[in-house]
Design brief:
The protein is an alpha/beta fold. It has one domain (5-137): 3-Layer(aba) Sandwich (Rossmann fold). The chain has helices at 17-29, 42-52, 72-81, 99-105, 121-128, and strands at residues 8-13, 37-39, 58-63, 88-94, 111-116.
């Protein structure tokens, strides 16, 4: 069963067009969300939040770390700075195998998973059972 779209949004943020294309297909085909919103850099994602953030919604961000303009860390820092983190769950999707990145991600309460690319159906199913978002899939 797909999530209730009116109160749950999925946002994919990655600077690689092919990665966004593939992740969008996985998200739709696995009924994670029927219409994810895509951004090719962190600044556009932050601008979206600054304009459209709604406390009645929960946002699940599939977030790359290494991007131009604003990287994934800066996106999360902006969300924290604006006090939006209670409504946001982040899945870090990265090609980084750097242990320091994994450790840094654990310092953000909004990060519910850290996945080395590519995203898989198995990962999406695991993410659906995460405490912060599982209610949207029942």
């Amino acid at each position: 069963m797909p999530p209730k779209s009116e109160n749950f949004e999925v946002i994919i943020v990655d600077d690689d067009e092919m990665t966004i294309f593939l992740h969008e297909i996985y998200v739709k085909e696995n009924k994670f969300h029927s219409s994810p919103i895509n951004f090719y850099n962190g600044k556009d994602a932050v601008d979206y939040f600054n304009t459209y953030f709604n406390v009645a919604k929960h946002y699940c961000i599939l977030l790359d770390i290494n991007m131009p303009v604003l990287d994934g860390w800066e996106v999360m820092d902006e969300i924290l700075q604006k006090g939006m983190e209670k409504n946001v769950s982040v899945i870090i999707l990265t090609s980084s195998i750097n242990t320091a990145d994994r450790i840094k991600a654990q310092k953000y309460d909004m990060v519910i998973d850290y996945v080395e690319k590519p995203l898989t159906v198995e990962h999406l199913n695991k993410i659906k059972s995460q405490e912060k978002i599982k209610a949207y899939f029942s």
